[in-house]
Amino acid sequence: MKTVSLSQELKSNAYPGRGIVLGRSADGKYAVTAYFIMGRSVNSRNRIFVEDGNGIRTQAFDPSKLSDPSLIIYAPVRVLGNKTIVTNGDQTDTIYEMMDKQCTFEQALRTREFEPDAPNYTPRISGIMHVENGTYNYALSILKSNNGDPSSCNRFTFAYTNPKAGEGRFIHTYMGDGNPLPSFEGEPTQVDIVGDIDAFTDTVWNSLNEDNKVSLFVRFIDIETGAFESRIVNKNK
């Protein structure tokens, strides 16, 4: 698979929906994740990311405009020991709670399906990063309807051991704008990871569609020590 420019990949899609990037920094020192959310409706755009312990959660920017919290208020990032969980919904909690009871990432996600937001049936996308004693591996998952048929859930997991420096994988909810919104298809896209945490954050944020982008979270985890740095960018201020 050819590595493509993450910036160009984002610029070429006005509405990828919610997206997860997992990979390794160009200097090889850091495990990298980025998670972004976008929105078309007032309800979806009325959000910000806020810190919550070692993770983050979504929050209504203007509580008076919050019409339906069910699929938009959740914790996208939680940390369980040396594992960092990144998802686009409340399956973060499912993964955290079941892995805390010695279940696997895949076992936790077998208890969940795509979102019940007919006619889109938005895929649930999830990532897990495992950093321990100088080693790093990660996995990405997508749970999606069977070509828009909600009677069947298709489940895919992609695992990456000892990822290369400067390389990542990008998965998102939608192939583009539409009605209904077309679900992501295929293997996660192989993308470049360029620059330090601030340069990478700027690249991702500035490449997202100006009208639709809402919030971005980026974290660099030191593979040797487990120490991390994070950035949050919110359109609503």
Description:
The protein has 237 residues and is mainly beta. The chain has one domain: Glutamine Phosphoribosylpyrophosphate, subunit 1, domain 1, CATH 3.60.20.20. 15% of the residues lie in helices and 41% in strands. It is built from five helices and 13 strands. The protein has helices at residues 6-11, 42-45, 91-99, 105-109, 197-207, and strands spanning 19-24, 30-38, 47-52, 55-60, 77-80, 83-87, 124-132, 135-146, 149-161, 167-172, 189-192, 213-222, 228-234. Strand 8 and strand 9 form a beta hairpin. It is globular. It starts with 5 loop residues before the first helix and ends with a strand.
Short description:
With 237 residues, the protein is mostly beta strands.
Output the keywords.
single chain, mainly beta, five-stranded antiparallel β-sheet, globular
Order of helices and strands: HEEHEEEEHHEEEEEHEE
Total count of strands: 13
Q: What is the CATH homologous superfamily assignment? A: Inosine monophosphate cyclohydrolase-like
Q: What sort of overall outline do the alpha carbons produce when their principal axes are compared?
A: globular
Low-confidence stretches: none
Count the DSSP helices: 5
Chart the SSEs and their pairings:
Layout lengths: L5 H6 L7 E6 L5 E9 L3 H4 L1 E6 L2 E6 L16 E4 L2 E5 L3 H9 L5 H5 L14 E9 L2 E12 L2 E13 L5 E6 L16 E4 L4 H11 L5 E10 L5 E7 L3
Antiparallel strand pairs: 1-2, 1-10, 2-12, 3-4, 5-6, 6-7, 7-8, 8-9, 10-11, 12-13
